[in-house]
Amino acid sequence: MLFLHQKRLRYVEINIDLYPSRKLELEKFSGSCAVPKVFFNEVLIGGLSELKDLDESGKLDEKIDFLITEASSAEAPLPPLSGELALIVRKMKETIVVKDRFYKMRRFINCFLGSEVVDFLSEDQYLERGEAVEFGRKLANELFFRHVLGENLFEDGNHLYRFLDHEPTVSSQCHNIPRGIIELKPKPITEIASRLRFLSYAIFEAYASEDGRRVDYRSIHGSEEFARGNQRPPYNLLKPFGVKDKRSQVALLYSEPLIHFALVCGTQSGPALRCYSPGDIDKELMDAARDFLRAGGLIVDLCGKVAYACKILRWFSDDFGKNEIEVLKHASNYLKPTDSEALLGMLSDVQLKVIYQPYDWGLNC
Fold this sequence. Notes:
By secondary structure, the chain is of the alpha+beta class. The chain is built from 16 helices and 9 strands. The chain has helices at 2-6, 22-30, 48-57, 60-69, 84-95, 114-124, 129-141, 168-172, 189-206, 217-221, 224-227, 281-297, 312-315, 317-320, 324-332, 337-348, and strands spanning 38-40, 43-46, 99-103, 106-113, 145-147, 160-163, 298-301, 306-309, 353-356. The strands form 3 sheets. It has a 4-stranded antiparallel β-sheet. A hairpin with a 2-residue loop joins strand 1 (38-40) and strand 2 (43-46). The protein is elongated. The relative contact order is 0.07.
């Protein structure tokens, strides 16, 4: 509002496109939801033309003086709450159905339909269906929810979306996020910084030269192979460490398959980032495997007798077992008991079809 700036008047804008529920309030105050409308506290001035007429007649300064000296009435329109959108989303979470659903031959946990959001917003915010879709896109822009595969921002219909705090990575691992509604208590930044500093020091100390002046970054890059027992990487003919390579002397005698649920390459289909400690490493690796496989890394369709497996189980199958059946049996140890029992039952009947999920190389950010 250039006119108000020229008069050096501070004001609060209530955008009824962003806060559609305020339309009824505006209509109650002014008899119309046409905008712009200017209020001096509880006093309706009118539109910009009425404001300029007051200025030309010399009465505007009088009203400004009154505005400065008098306290605001409880009847004045309230400024938007800082978390007003969050309140709408919180109410939406309590209303719409959030559950596991199948989409494109995959099971997605804790998701909802775009049509359900439009139904809710239409009723709660008194919007036409097209307006509710636009409002839903504003909520998606604020990262309150997103499409499970990132196919669109927000659309009406049978598209699947998931609240940010229901994302498997966020709900199980992330405690410090910039937006959305999260029920977990954020960890102090000092604690996170301390853990990262500790891990960095440990890595640099392990790969520093004897005089402490150089770091062998190539060895750090190849350090995965210590836990893999110097196994040959996927689609490679040679082992990482040759016979004369000193690193082969400290590689594990047997591969540790759980390392694949801890190594993070920052992709959508990869494991979540988390911290590990020397004293509890075995338990923490098993927890990482459970979180990854139960969050979609291995999906069991009992009716269709199909197992949808992450390609990590295929690429590094030698670390998990001698054949596909052994790999799935190994992975079943980390599924929910009901899913594990169903998978083992189908494996014993030799009626199982295994489909490997497409790997999403998109950045997990």
